[in-house]
Write a structure and sequence with these properties.
The chain is mainly alpha-helical and 414 residues long. Helix content is 65%, strand content 4%. Bound molecules: zinc ion (ZN).
Length: 414
């Protein structure tokens, strides 16, 4: 066996072990989700509305994705022409090409952005045409900066004589480092006002995560997320989720879910998965751009952007498998911490009428677009929890302080 093949095998083994460690969750492996009928859970009009809205929404995604691939494919083929006319130096020219590619994609996606707002308005959801087209300068600017920094790092490394085509080895750790930095810093940039509810302290105690819970204004949709590392860990609730028709009992479930993400180190796990994907992705990019002279020369940038977008699309289903698993664990944590499957079920049912999410989308939508378990799967988990909870020996009602089953550690399985 050659030395390089042995090194490759060793790397693959390390990858597999790391993936196995990250894959484990506290959701019992033997948990059986009952198969429920969506027609028995949602009124026909709610179901129809959510299904129809989502059916067209996913067509917009398909249209955007195909347009993006066609535009960037053409750019990869013909974009090289622009390199000869630039005098900005190799890295400057590369960044310029990156910006042109970015601008082309933005312009090509514009009709879909506008159609999406129109579609949202038809269903009474909020959305602004200005925001969808040019309004969100801050987000556009941030993406621009990220793209330029990434290109500067990769091209800079690839131009170092003794690194060359092996730029992916030092570049992947740099990107992982940037990702850690971003995860650490971002919670402090988000602000928000602190959220006080009588149940928060109790949930923090049960899940052993003592972090601030904050409410973010300026969002029209009900949502929540947990982020941060170490001292910057926070739970954020988008304002509409703490307002009616959402009830305090549902919000308790939501906070339980978000604390569950932090209790199980999901931010670190996401970064771990990011690292596991970053290395092979960067390697493929290095190989694919070799015939254009490698990432050190601007001529390779249009092709690199196209290959990168294709790789992200290929990776998307895998990424969704991972996030769905983390989300399922957070739901399970919420069930154990609140001991309230009824609240969970009501919450997920309400999502179908409030956010128009299709409770059980078709297969390809599930594969490419669902980074959470479907509403049906989430409701089925509340049923499964209720079934396991009812099999446990009952405690007398008066000893409510004895705490829910949640406080009991469940072995790490599966
Ligand atoms: Zn979540």
């Amino acid at each position: 066996m050659t030395r390089s093949r042995a090194a490759l095998l060793a790397l693959a083994a390390v990858w597999a072990v790391a993936a196995w460690l990250l894959w484990r969750t506290s959701v019992p492996a033997a948990l059986h989700l009952p198969h429920l009928d969506e027609h028995s859970l949602f009124p026909p009009d709610v179901l129809h509305r959510a299904q129809h809205y989502s059916a067209v929404q996913r067509l917009f995604w398909l249209g955007t994705t195909i347009t993006q691939l066609v535009v960037l494919g053409l750019f990869a083929r013909y974009g090289v022409r622009w390199t000869r006319e630039s005098a900005a130096g190799p890295i400057g020219t590369g960044m310029l090409l990156g910006m042109i590619g970015f601008a082309l994609v933005w312009a090509a996606e514009l009709p879909f952005s506008v159609l999406e707002v129109w579609w949202r308005h038809r269903y009474g959801l909020s959305g602004s045409y200005v925001q969808a087209t040019v309004g969100n300068w801050f987000a556009l600017g941030a993406q621009f900066v990220v793209l330029c920094v990434a290109l500067a790092i990769v091209m800079g490394l690839a131009r170092v004589r003794w690194i060359g085509d092996r730029w992916w080895m030092p570049a992947a750790p740099v990107f992982v480092g940037l990702r850690i930095l971003l995860a650490f810093v971002s919670p402090w940039l988000l602000g928000g006002s602190s959220f006080h509810a009588p149940y928060v302290a109790r949930l923090q105690r049960i899940e052993r995560v003592h972090v601030p819970v904050r409410v973010l204004n300026g969002f029209a949709e009900p949502n929540a997320f947990a982020t941060g590392l170490g001292p910057s860990r926070r739970v954020f609730l988008w304002k509409p989720i703490v307002d009616p028709p959402f009830t305090p009992r549902m919000d308790r479930f939501v906070v339980g879910h978000e604390l569950g993400h932090l209790a199980h180190d999901h931010i670190w796990k996401s970064i771990g998965w990011y690292a596991l994907f970053a290395f092979p992705l960067a390697f493929v990019l290095a190989v694919a751009t070799r015939r254009r002279g490698g990432m050190g020369v601007p001529e390779a940038i249009p092709l690199a952007i196209f290959v990168y977008v294709v790789l992200l699309l290929v990776e998307l289903p895998l990424q969704n498998v991972v996030t769905r698993r983390l989300e399922a664990e957070a739901d399970w944590s919420a069930l154990r911490a609140t001991h309230d499957p009824v609240a969970g079920r009501q919450l997920f049912r309400l999502f179908a009428s409030e956010t128009l999410e299709d409770p059980s989308p078709p297969g390809w939508d599930y594969v490419f677009l669902q980074n959470h378990p479907t509403l049906m799967q989430r409701i089925e988990m509340t049923e499964a929890y209720a079934a396991t909870a009812s099999m446990r020996p009952r405690r007398p009602r008066s000893t409510a302080t004895a705490g829910p089953a949640a406080a009991r550690p469940v072995g790490r399985v599966g």
